Amino acid sequence: MKFLLFADLHYHPAAYASTVENLETILKRAAEEQVDFVIHAGDFCNDYATCPQILKAYLDNPYGLPVYGVYGNHELEWVTHDRKGLDKSNPMERVTPFLTNRADKVVWGTPDGTIGNGSIGYYYFDVNGFRIVCVDTNYSYNEERDEWMHNQDYFAPKGNIHGDCLGPVQLAWLENVLTEAAYKAIPCVVVGHAGFSAHWNKSWNHETVRGIYTRVNAIRKGTVRASINGHYHTQRHIVEDNVLYWDANAVIHACMYIASDGDHYTDEHTFEYVEYDAEGNELKRYDAPYSKPYRGKFGYHFTEPLSAVFTLEEDGRITVDGKETEFAYGIRPAPQYWEEVAGKVLGIPSCEFQVEV
User: Fold this and answer.
1) Main-chain phi, psi angles of 209, to 5 degrees
2) Which of 108, 143, 298, 302 is the most exposed place for a label (fewest CB within 10 A)?
3) pLDDT (tens digit, 9 = 90+) per residue, 38-88?
């Protein structure tokens, strides 16, 4: 099985310096590599309500590629913010159908396996003898109501705890899906936004999820081959207990969480900005400073969009073909941030791993 993965595109023309062209570059690479599918690990788009251009580019890509994705913590950001007249009782119905162009060909976490009203955003699909399990790490716990809730914003609701979680219902579903795969000898890859490794930033559920992996792999060694996440805008990986944990770098901007006033860019530091109408048709393009999107000046931007091509073999070999890049205009974070926050990695490295099966 061969697939291309990317994470944290953060498309929103008013907020970020990512572009449709960044995505088109990634999709062109996927087509050239003849992958089985493309998947993003969350934070694909910050405004599904007013950005049809990015949804068209992904779902209706000119290569006919099957594409998938998972909920990031920003997926519902602008669906729930400042949308007069929109029914906010179930904002997930405005995002879930756009996670994939194969919505009717995956098995959703609903009782009947269909997409339903979109309030369940986790699912799995099988391809070439492998299973891809797409989890939703956007649940949090309300102690007063004794209730697990799906976050409707990029933070957990006020008063809730344990953000970046799966919650007990999804955890049970995950174990059932992986256990079934073990008994059917189907090797699996789990893709989520928050990660489950014990060695860097992680979901509050990370120990529970790793326990599931251990129990499943005790049934059949090598069932859970890899657990991949985005979210942290860094690049790290480790093989632990015979599972590859892969933390994918952001597509075009790193170190978004650095305490900075954005003074590392001036008006001379520009990127190609494209304006669209309400239907997603291009109006005009021009060079604009990184400060035009209001969050653009705070990151440190790459010259080339990042993605990784994963190849999984039946014998447990996992090959990752990464992508090199440079910092735009040579402007990079201070060493203490680059080493401690970003993991000292520029781009996505190419690596090979062996999982015992």
Assistant:
1) -65, -45
2) 143
3) 999 999 999 998 899 999 999 999 999 999 999 999 999 876 665 655 666
How does DSSP assign 125-162, residue by residue? Answer: EEETTEEEEE----EEEETTTTEEEE-SSSSPPTT-EE
Q: What's at 17, amino acid-wise?
A: A
Cβ burial of 244 (10 Å; 0-12, 13-18, 19+) is buried
- Candidates 235, 41, 36; CA nearest to 131 is 36
Q: How many CB atoms lie within 10 A of CB 288?
A: 18
**Is pLDDT of 255 > 70?**
no
β-partners of residue 288 are 271
User: What is the number of alpha carbons within 13 Å of residue 180 lying toward its C-beta?
Assistant: 12
- DSSP state letters, 176-245: HHHHHHHHTT--EEEEESS---SSSS--TTHHHHHHHHHHHHHHSTTSEEEEEE-SSS--EEEEETTEEE
CA distance 95 to 133: 18
pLDDT at 253: 85
Cα 4 to Cα 14, 90, 306: the distances in Å are: 27, 31, 11
What are the backbone dihedrals phi and psi of residue 31, each rounded to the nearest 5 degrees, phi first? Answer: -65, -45
- How far apart are the C-alpha atoms of 95 and 111, rounded to whole Å? 20
Note the pLDDT tens digit of each residue in 231-246.
998 889 999 999 999 9
Segments making up each domain of the chain, as ranges: 2-354
Please answer whether residues 192 and 135 qualify as being in contact, where contact means their C-beta atoms are separated by less than 8 angstroms.
yes
What is 2-354's CATH number?
3.60.21.10
More confident residue, 342 or 91: 91
Beta-carbon contacts of residue 91 (< 8 Å; ≥ 6 apart): 76, 79, 80, 152
